[in-house]
Design goal:
Number of helices: 11
Largest sheet: 7 strands, mixed
Strand content: 15-25%
Number of strands: 9
Oligomer: single chain
């Protein structure tokens, strides 16, 4: 059997073991590329490679529903690659909707100051700083997340533009910012989730009380004093939460406009004062 055939067969076998995944073939390709020490594009361009034994160890971990991002240690988001691992929320493409919404608000005039509440591994803040000049602050209550965020800022050459601090949302912040970003927990405690999420990703970054709205109640009280004149906040929501969260923010005197993700689901509230 040729090396090319062996690689194709290995990918097909691995993908068949990932029936729980929405992207089984992609998962297999990412794991094989990681085992080979190359990127996925290089793998797809040259399949004339032997399959290393380490690949099957990675397959076993994925078969146990460990997130691919944890296994390979990185995840692409917007225009950057982020180091991730256990203890941080895996960046998701849906969250890029917040950056699209923010770009529509600023329309060519970049935000000079950016605040990312619940920054995790620095996902939204570092993506925003890659999009626009300026400086930013990321806040999280998790020390693990902050270690990843600082490491990502350093790896991306943004350590002089991005500051990170431990905090409970914006409780200790008095300043105003041109752009406030937030991807709060919004899952109800009894809502079903895939095992690869519930069993591996940090509960504190997922769950927000029985109705999934606890952290929006906090943000509704904080956002009015955080948004600078002419600025905005981009806040991620669950796809069925637009009315409920808009109501909470509206009661606090905020105006909201819904933005949808690429699948057409409500995903972001663009908030102004």
């Amino acid at each position: 059997m040729s090396a090319s055939h062996a690689a194709s067969t290995a990918l097909a076998e691995a993908a068949a073991r990932f029936a729980f995944s929405d992207t089984p073939r992609l998962d297999a390709e990412l794991l094989l590329a990681h085992a080979l020490g190359i990127d996925r594009n290089a793998l797809l361009l040259d399949m004339q490679r032997a399959v290393p034994p380490a690949f099957w160890d990675l397959v076993a971990r994925r078969e146990a529903q460990e997130p691919v991002a944890y296994i390979v240690g990185t995840r692409g988001f917007w225009t950057i690659d982020l180091k991730v691992g256990p203890g941080v929320l895996v960046p998701r493409a849906d969250s890029e909707t917040l950056l699209v919404a923010a770009a529509s608000h600023f329309a060519g005039r970049p935000p000079g100051s950016i605040l990312d509440l619940g920054t995790g591994p620095g996902t939204l803040l570092l993506a925003a700083l890659d999009e626009w000049p300026g400086r930013g602050l990321g806040v999280d209550r998790s020390d693990i997340a902050l270690r990843y965020a600082r490491a990502n800022a350093a790896a991306l050459g943004m350590a002089d533009r991005a500051t990170f601090a431990r905090g409970d949302w914006a409780a200790a912040i008095a300043a105003r910012f041109d752009l406030v970003l937030a991807n709060p927990p919004y899952i109800g405690t009894d809502e079903p989730l895939p095992d690869e999420v519930r069993a591996y990703e940090p509960a504190a970054a997922l769950f927000a009380g029985s109705d999934g709205l606890d952290d929006y109640r906090t943000l509704a009280q904080q956002l009015p004093r955080l948004i600078a004149p002419g600025g905005c906040a981009a806040v991620e929501i669950g796809h069925r939460q637009a009315a409920a969260v808009s109501g909470l923010f509206g009661d606090a005197g905020l105006d909201c406009r819904v933005h949808r993700d690429l699948a057409g689901h409500d995903r972001c509230l663009l908030v102004t004062t």
